[in-house]
Specification:
The protein is an all-beta fold and 86 residues long. It is 0% helix and 41% strand.
Length: 86
């Protein structure tokens, strides 16, 4: 009786890399929300918006004045902001 023996070196050669389980930074969902300027202090514009997930609460967003190239808004002005939703 003859038993054949084969080498198993070729079976482990084609391993695939592990799949990414965390979401990509570039594929976050964004939404445009309207808010108003609450105050301006030390070159930072504070914008108050309604929270996209919970409409009953509000959020403050801090934006530097350099992000407004044409005109710096004044207190009480309405502005639109793009917000990431997690």
């Amino acid at each position: 009786m003859i038993i054949s023996v084969t080498s198993s070196n070729k079976t482990n050669k084609t391993e695939k890399p592990a799949k990414r389980t965390t979401p990509s930074l570039y594929k976050k969902k964004t939404i445009r929300v309207r808010g108003f300027v609450d105050r301006i202090s030390n070159g930072i514009v504070v914008i108050v918006i309604r929270d996209p997930k919970d409409n009953e609460s509000v959020r403050e967003i801090f934006v530097p004045e350099s992000k407004f190239p044409k005109r710096i808004p004044e207190e009480g002005d309405y502005v639109s902001v793009t917000v990431n939703i997690y």
